[in-house]
């Protein structure tokens, strides 16, 4: 009972903090963005909650950076527990779906997972990029990814192991460049426990410059032509789960830090 | 400056209240649902926020009722301002998109709006249905809709008028039954200021029993075959904006109270 009350108190404090730290950012005139009227939009945390909802529901597209007034809000969201709760909630729902599936068990049962911020996390990197308030830095990201120091997303690692245990062939499909990041990605996935998947598919030269929707649709089409049935497809970007051959069910994991077209 | 501080204070209180009133529901043993462990899921408001996000991102589907422990949370969300803020935020984004469109101006420029909880609101009805915690009641809803007392969703009425002014042909496409609710719906839309649309399309006998995705895809296909270009498609249900001929851009308005397959 006490731990339950403490839990609720902690939660109330987090929500209050979400409001207060938005205020802190907004009340600094040097940080106030010139275009978006946060007062008209409802101010601070409420505005950022609307923004995050619109991102997750695919209403805002091709956005380049997190609105500066939402820096503290996104920092709180990503690091104070709600991001993890949202992830766990969705993975619980994926588990329910998996439990209902009757596999064909002819080696054709497939599942697709994205890599960045699905299997392994770039949160440490994005902390230094003001949680997405700074624009995308291709060279900086490449340097980071080359280190192979992304940590596993715990909920997705559990999902991965459940999928393996149930008998799915798991395909990891990533927009990372095959030539420059292939080795580091392979190693990073391995050192974080993603072992026993069917295939890691990186972006080959043929797909350079193509949008993720086009590239990933092509990959899924090839898998379908090889005879695989794609039962599920999980990613943190809408471009992971839109386009063609998306799979029987798609699941969008939260990511309020960046947008991949 | 004072009004700005008051606004932030009000916002903090709302967020705190969201946490507290979840606690109130959860601490009542008669209301605690037997299956979902709210503690394990992160408890009260945080859990309900995860649930709402999963609904809006189309991760949870075919859900029948709002989780009972989220009754107060959804009540707060719908009536304390955040729902309205979310709506306004999305409509602002729709307006940005509209401003970029160069119309063909050959009477083919079309836009599709859903009716229930897009153009006109059923919030008053759902208040009596515990904001969706009670299961769908077809007869109760029919009685309500027959009264033609739904009020306009202000942000969408503004959008409607902007679309008209810019020269779009507006098609209102609803799953409401044509025979039993046609007259009331026509009257309700009119008494709320939705005047000057191109066509109101209700569910005719041919589509009875079909899912909204199938029915609405068929309608959009017919419009495309008539030569219309569907620039935008707005609804509060994923089934409004999925399927075929969805349009150049789709927009999902929030609705955490019910799910239409």
From TrEMBL, chains A, B:
Protein name per UniProt: HAD superfamily
Leader peptide range in chain numbering: 1-27
Classification via NCBIfam families: plant-AP
Keyword Glycoprotein assigned: yes
Membership in a protein family: Belongs to the APS1/VSP family.
SUPFAM superfamilies xref list: HAD-like (SSF56784)
Taxonomy, superkingdom: Eukaryota
CDD domains named among the record's database cross-references: HAD_VSP
Origin species: Forsythia ovata
Keyword entries, A-Z: Glycoprotein, Signal
Family annotation (Gene3D superfamilies): HAD superfamily/HAD-like (3.40.50.1000)
The UniProt record lists the keyword Transcription regulation: no
């Amino acid at each position: 009972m006490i731990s339950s009350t403490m839990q609720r108190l902690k939660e109330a404090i987090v929500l209050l903090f979400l409001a207060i730290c938005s205020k802190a950012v907004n009340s600094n005139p040097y940080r106030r963005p010139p275009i978006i009227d946060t007062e008209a939009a409802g101010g601070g945390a409420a505005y950022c909650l609307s923004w995050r909802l619109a991102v997750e529901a695919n209403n805002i597209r091709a956005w380049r950076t997190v609105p500066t007034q939402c820096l503290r809000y996104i920092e709180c969201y990503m690091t104070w527990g709600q991001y993890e709760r949202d992830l766990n909630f969705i993975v619980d729902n994926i588990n329910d779906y998996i439990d209902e599936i009757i596999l064909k068990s002819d080696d054709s049962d497939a599942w697709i997972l994205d890599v960045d911020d699905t299997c392994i996390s770039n949160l440490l990197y994005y902390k230094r990029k003001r949680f997405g308030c700074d624009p995308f830095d291709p060279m900086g990201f490449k340097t980071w990814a080359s280190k192979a120091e992304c940590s596993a997303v715990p909920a997705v690692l559990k999902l991965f192991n459940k999928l393996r245990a149930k008998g799915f062939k798991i395909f990891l499909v990533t927009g990372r460049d095959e030539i420059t990041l292939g080795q580091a990605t392979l190693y990073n996935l391995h050192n974080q426990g993603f072992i026993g998947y069917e295939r890691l598919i990186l972006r080959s030269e043929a797909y350079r410059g193509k949008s993720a929707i086009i590239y990933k649709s092509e990959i899924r089409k090839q898998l379908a032509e090889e005879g695989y049935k794609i039962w599920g497809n999980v990613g943190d970007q809408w471009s992971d789960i839109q386009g063609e051959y998306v799979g029987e069910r798609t699941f969008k994991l939260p990511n309020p830090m960046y947008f991949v077209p």
